[in-house]
TrEMBL record:
Its cofactor is Mg(2+). It comes from Lutibacter oricola. Residues 203-330 form the Fructose-1-6-bisphosphatase class 1 C-terminal domain. GO terms for molecular function: fructose 1,6-bisphosphate 1-phosphatase activity; magnesium ion binding. Keywords: Carbohydrate metabolism, Cytoplasm, Hydrolase, Magnesium, Metal-binding. Its EC number is 3.1.3.11. Pathway: Carbohydrate biosynthesis; Calvin cycle. Coiled coil: none annotated. This is Fructose-1,6-bisphosphatase class 1. Residues 6-198 form the Fructose-1-6-bisphosphatase class I N-terminal domain. PANTHER family: FRUCTOSE-1,6-BISPHOSPHATASE-RELATED, SEDOHEPTULOSE-1,7-BISPHOSPHATASE, CHLOROPLASTIC.
Length: 343
């Protein structure tokens, strides 16, 4: 393993792909790598340090923040702010985007980042794998001016890079900058990420479906029909149901083994649960770069026009043939495509 490229070497080797010649993009990826190691160190010994349980606050989405949500958010925010490595950051745990003003009050950087600092919060206290998700864009407003909302509300197809860290049996950082998907495993003894999963790809087909079936009665009919199809005794079915409850971990498993992750609308969550900007868009970019597919059941996730920082959308993501099949069932109920009109 140690002969493999380290993540740092890989980033430098692949600088030729980045339109940024200033090294700014490489430094941004290196800062993410550093923050991931710091969070990993805490996550790995969560039971021994006072980091489990609720932080006692509620985020803008009305969710109880876990201490690890707040910790991971602070680590990523401070790591990037202290290095003045981006001009703005938006986070699941911050009400609004944060403009990074350099020491001299201005910031010449061209990248903004959106982040889900700790994904799978419900699993934090029970020692089940969790993650971090990030998405990077080039700003659209003039460099040197204060960053604006429109720099963050860009369609997913404008992403420059996206990735996740999974804090699981091993810790991995998986990312794309538009040239395929590569996975790096952390060697905790050496403290370096090594290329362990080059050119990751979703199998076109799979036999795993991931969805919180506890919400079954609330699902749209198209989803109920697709689940019946998955559970039918026919051909290579029934499929296997696997649901960790951490998007990053369910996505990672399905990318390796073949499968589909679904978080649809429901009568209790009329727009679904997952956030477009820092959960669905980055995972969709990774999925497509790994020959998978990601839609809201009807439309390509990365073509959706964001309107709010924390907006939610339904999410169907994974092996292309499985997402196509799910869409076939959804297409029979076109009225369910209008989830955005349900204000
Ligand atoms: O408990 P539910 O409703 O099945 O939701 C689980 C989903 O919600 C999430 O935990 C949402 O992410 P956060 O933990 O970052 O809020 C996903 O990781 C996961 O797939
Ligand atoms: Mg999340
Ligand atoms: Mg989160």
């Amino acid at each position: 393993m140690e002969n493999n490229l380290t993540l740092g070497e890989f980033i430098i080797e692949n600088q030729k792909h980045y339109k940024s010649t200033s090294g700014e993009f490489s430094r941004l990826l290196s800062s993410i790598k550093l923050a991931a190691k710091i969070v990993n160190y805490k996550v790995n010994k969560a039971g021994l340090v006072d980091i489990l349980g609720d932080a006692g606050d509620v985020n803008i989405q009305g969710e109880d923040q876990k201490k690890l949500d707040v910790y991971a958010n602070d680590v990523f925010m401070q790591t990037l702010i202290n290095r003045e490595i981006a001009c703005g950051i938006a986070s699941e745990e911050e009400d609004d985007f944060v403009a990074i003003k350099g020491k001299h009050g201005t910031n010449e950087n061209k990248y903004v980042m959106l982040i889900d600092p700790l994904d799978g919060s419900s699993n934090v206290d029970v020692n089940v794998s969790v993650g971090t998700i990030f998405s990077i864009y080039r700003r659209v407003t003039p460099i040197g001016t204060p960053v604006q909302q429109e720099d963050f509300l860009q369609r997913g197809n404008q992403q420059v890079a996206a990735g996740y860290v999974v804090y699981g049996t091993s810790t991995m950082l998986v990312y794309t900058s538009g040239h395929g998907v590569n996975g790096f495993t952390l060697n905790p003894a050496i403290g370096s990420f090594y290329l362990s999963h080059p050119n990751m790809e979703f199998p076109k087909d799979g036999n795993i479906y991931s969805i919180n079936e506890g919400n079954y009665v609330h699902f749209p009919q198209g989803v109920k029909d697709y689940l019946k199809y998955c559970q039918e005794e026919k051909d290579d079915r029934p499929y296997t149901s696997r649901y960790i409850g951490s998007l990053v971990s369910d996505f990672h498993r399905n990318m390796i083994k073949g499968g589909i992750y679904m978080y649809p609308t429901s009568s209790i969550g009329p727009k679904g649960k997952l956030r477009l900007l820092y959960e669905c868009n980055p995972m969709a970019f990774l999925a497509e770069q790994a020959n998978g597919k990601a839609t809201d059941g009807y439309v390509r996730i990365m073509d959706l026009k964001p309107t709010e920082l924390h907006q939610r959308v339904p999410f169907f993501c994974g092996s292309t043939n499985m997402v196509n099949k799910a869409e076939e069932f959804m297409a029979k109920y076109p009225e369910d495509a209008k989830y955005n009109d349900l204000d």
